[in-house]
Amino acid sequence: MPETFGPAFEDRDRPLLSYGLPFTEALTKHVDDIFHASRIYIICSRSLAKNTHYLADLTHALGNKVAGIRIGMKPHSLWSEILEIVEDTKKCEADLIVTLGAGSLTDAAKIVSYALANDVTTPEELDSLCPTSSHKRHDIKPSKVPVACIPTTLSGGEYSAFAGATNDKTGQKHSFSEALQGPALVILDPKLTTTTPDRVWLSTGIKAVDHCVETLCSLESDDAADEDARNGLAKLIPGLIRSKQNPKDLEARLQCQLGARDAMSACTRGVPLGASHGIAHQLGPAGVSHGDTSCILNPAVCKYNYRKGANVERQNAIIRTLWEDPKAREIFTEKGLNRETADLGDLMDAIIRALDLPRSLGEFGISEEKLVDIAEHSLKDRWVNTNPAHLDKEGVLKILRMSLD
């Protein structure tokens, strides 16, 4: 397949997107013609480094341009590990950061570049870059060292100019944005993604679906974002089902990757999302992986908002779209759902269960005793506060309890 190369989004110059070539060939090409980089720092997932030849392939292709390598990070991008990489990249004098792996690496790389530009070395200094910090700096500089991402999941952080990371001391996940820059280049290689465990691939695909659904459910969306989200759903739903049926279907995997791009095109237009995303930020530190948060929360949030009458017409439009998809309709029919009575939460539940993905907090050892703390942290999240139906502590608790068993 020849390379397809250009801006990932029609109306924005960055990030650039490449697909059609093996990832090693694409990266070595663009290291020279875009970045003119000679000191490349690689952040690679531990499983890829340990269980496959792909990191070795990448380092061989880049040769003496590799200045440093970090293998493995814990989920949800811990501040302590980010600061370790900041120190390492500084010593290496890195002029390009490359990620090979999942979303936590992507978020970490974006924050590392941001921290380098602002001479951050401590947790307190990193906190000062958070928009919500009580001692936020006023002289914040934009990210400087460019980031190139080779993703193996579908969560889509490689397309955005914001990132999340967890403060080890408090367990709270914080968002970084404002002067933080998104990656400059994204390289898609569906063959590489066959190394990703099915559970991770499919659950992060539901995260991308959640991006689309919460955009289409938002009361503050616009025509451009809605079109992106509909395009994303049209690729993601059949692509995920085909991926489940045949994990080696590379065309289905590429469609999922392009659907995740469409989902992020919608998300990065500034449309406020809702509680499925907002509460998810606090489930991560409680032990729920990135994609699994959407599997658990999205149906409950849809049902909560629908019952409150917050976005009935917008949810009904998504319901009609999902029933028109042959792959989805087959699942709904098998589950005995009625087109006239099944709500969006029911449809999402059916799709998630058909992919054999988790549907409850209990599956992660989260019990009633932990819900109050999660709810209180969630109320500080911007997307809980932009949920279509107003949410207070009791409202968040109701959603969490709907997701408990």
Q: How would you sum up the global shape?
A: globular
The run of helices and strands is: EEHEHHEHEHHEEEEHHHHHHHHHHH
Provide the residue-averaged pLDDT.
96
Q: How is the CATH topology of the largest domain named?
A: Dehydroquinate synthase-like, alpha domain
Number of separate domains: 2
Spatial extent as radius of gyration: 20 Å
Stretches where pLDDT falls below 50 for ≥5 residues? none
Number of helices: 17
Percentage beta strand: 5-15%
Query: What is the CATH level 1 assignment of the largest domain?
Result: Mainly Alpha
Range of helix content: 40-55%
Q: Within the largest sheet, what's the order of strands?
A: 1-2-9-6-5-3-4
Tell me about this structure:
This protein is α/β, with parallel strands linked by helices and 405 residues long. The protein folds into two domains: 4-191, 3-Layer(aba) Sandwich (Rossmann fold); 197-402, Dehydroquinate synthase-like - alpha domain (Dehydroquinate synthase-like, alpha domain). The chain has helices at residues 23-35, 46-51, 54-62, 79-92, 103-117, 123-127, 190-193, 198-217, 223-245, 250-267, 275-283, 290-307, 312-324, 326-334, 344-354, 371-378, 393-402; strands at residues 4-7, 16-19, 40-44, 66-71, 96-101, 147-151, 163-166, 173-176, 185-188. Strands 1-2-9-6-5-3-4 form a seven-stranded mixed sheet, sandwiched between helices. A two-stranded antiparallel sheet has the order 7-8. The mean pLDDT is 96.
